[in-house]
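Example 5.3 — Site-2 protease family protein
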Amino acid sequence: MTYEPVSTRTPRNAFVPSPVFVGIVAVFAVSGWMTWTGFGNVRVDVFLFIVSGWLVSLCLHEYAHALLGFFSGDRSVADRGYLRLNPLKYTSPLLSIVLPVVVVILGGIGLPGGAVWVDHRHINSRLKDSLISAAGPLTNVVLALIAAFPFLIGVVDLPIIEVAGGFALDPDAHAEFWAALAALAFLQVTATILNLLPIPGLDGGGIIAPWMSPAYQRAWNLFAPYGFILLFLLLWQTRVGDYFYDLVFWITDKLGVDQVLIQVGLELMRFWSGN
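Solution (predicted structure tokens):
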């Protein structure tokens, strides 16, 4: 078996954000302003804000893996373009971007994506190996805290008013924006927990795999392609799914993010589903 050599020279633009990522960030910023001001169809605004925000977080998650891999010894991540935050450079854009976005839209859950490829032959430490896998979920932790910060410090009063037979959004409190931000915080929490599950193929599995014996690592890696299937079975076919959501809402509650506001944000995102 032959291996492609690792470049010792880092491309000059290796750390320059790609136009694709800059475009996603621009959509996120503009749609956030549109959601805040109620410009046009606010449900479409919320959709764009949540989806583009989720895409930004996916790019940052994978960037964290690649960045730590680069500084741990694998210079090839720079040659592959992983340090430019371009989701089109990932090993499988379908699994890394399309599938997680579809699951967010239809299922309202931050599904982990398959991603950048780090050549672990050039990582000379089990601890570094584990930290490379942990870098992604830790990024989601930081993003969850950022999204939840206004709620955590009490800046946001619950912008929902009770009406006969239910509740309505307060038109004077930028309610759609706060609901969308609550949904983004929720997605980051779900992504953190899912990525930390010790399942082959997920970051949690990657964290513990370096500490296994070579024989166990080989067996573990054989099951890695089926990690997503196992994850789906656990979440939607067993009681693990109930425990998962209980944990997620316990964490979001501790962060000051109201469960009703999260549900409103996810419902607004599905602008095609009705009024």
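Remark. Confidence is low (pLDDT under 50) at residues 1-7.
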